[in-house]
Write the structure tokens for this entry.
Amino acid sequence: MPREHSEMPTLDSLLPPETDQKVRIASAQLSAEIAPLGAELQRLTDAQGRELLWDGDPAYWTGRAPILFPIVGSLVGDSYRLGDRRYTLPKHGFARRSLFTPIAQQQGSVTFRLAANAATRAAYPFDFVLDISFAIEGAALTMTAAVTNAGDEPMPASFGFHPALRWPLPYGRPRDQHRVRFAQPEPAPIRRIDGTGAIRPETLPTPVKGRDLMLDDALFADDAIIFDRLESRSLTYGAPGGPALQIDFPDMPHLGLWMKPGANYLCIEPWQGHSDPIGFDGDFRDKPGIVLIDPGETRRFIMRIALAPGEGAFD
């Protein structure tokens, strides 16, 4: 095991500087640009060049589609306990601030890799390989995260996608007509976080009516809406009468929806895991939402965003 985190260099001191190099992949119907920094999707455009992804306006939020690993959300005190040692991790982990290496590329696909190094081991003492693949086929972008345990002991981890999609979408439909339609009814109560990012103990009535969530800035006055008892593994986002986005996340049991009131984006975030509950001080391996990956095992998480015609999307 590495030395205590307090004796090690910080992530900020060891992670490579930001890079502007981007990789473009495309089909006749869709194109995407991805930055090696964070393996973060930077642009997603349709055949007419209309932007489907938020532009990272710093007046609201500079992110676009960060990758969340090895945690989702916040830790109590930004730290966790593993056995008799304590380590520090920032909100959403370190992957979004790490420089990935492109390891494979074709016209319609690219794969980026982040492997454990001195900086990551100081905060997360496990030998991992994280491959993030982007593939466009027709009108669909599929993002696949492959988390491999390259060590010799079970590895606890969470993972999440965090794309910020335009709200409204660029198809001329009013902002207040946009909605999320889940594949299944979602009657279970939702969760919220406190001012530190920890999950509050109480549950709240779901704002979903049957399968539909009508979007309004007021929904996000208390930060994200967290679905930790989710029935659906797919949803449709858009407005009646216009093209919509079909979003699938077959391997992800949790979902966050988030935006900053007044901003023109909606983050649709499939997760495996979420923030610590308020007051949690158990072993990291017992943190709610954590999965244990055995030595040599690879765990995959998939999110697919596809353009869907407006006709019939909300019938």
